[in-house]
Write a structure and sequence with these properties.
By secondary structure, this protein is α+β, with helices and mostly antiparallel strands. It has a domain of 64 residues: Roll (SH3 type barrels), CATH 2.30.30. Helix content is 32%, strand content 24%. The protein has 2 helices and 4 strands, in the order H-E-E-E-E-H. It has a 4-stranded antiparallel sheet with strand order 1-2-3-4, with helices on one face. Strand 3 and strand 4 form a beta hairpin. About 8% of the residues have low confidence.
């Protein structure tokens, strides 16, 4: 038996709705961009986007997303990132995992 198209539309709508409910809104309109400082003295202005596999992703003011190793961040910004990680884990109902501090070589 062939599935009526309105069932497919309903499934698509439910999938979209469920996906949007499980995401976190960044609230860019309520935040100011952060100036991220690097250990080499350079800086970048933008919003925290994501941290994964030892990399931090920043959305610059021109909406370009850049990424680099967490170890390149200044100590203050690594602490900021760790706090943000705990905050997000709390929102997700998870036990936060402590971020390892980079070792100087």
């Amino acid at each position: 038996m062939k599935t009526p198209p309105y069932y497919l539309l309903l499934l698509l709508l439910l999938g979209t709705l469920c996906g949007s409910l499980s995401a976190h809104d960044a609230h860019y309109e309520k935040t100011t961009p952060k100036i991220w400082k690097m250990v080499d003295g350079s800086s970048i202005e933008g919003y925290f986007f994501l941290q994964r596999d030892g990399e931090v992703y920043i959305e610059k003011l021109n909406e370009q997303i850049v990424h680099f190793p967490v170890s390149k961040l200044s100590e203050n910004d690594r602490h900021w990132l760790e706090h943000k990680h705990h905050e997000i884990a709390h929102l997700n109902g998870q036990n936060p995992v402590k971020i390892a501090q980079p070792v100087a070589v």
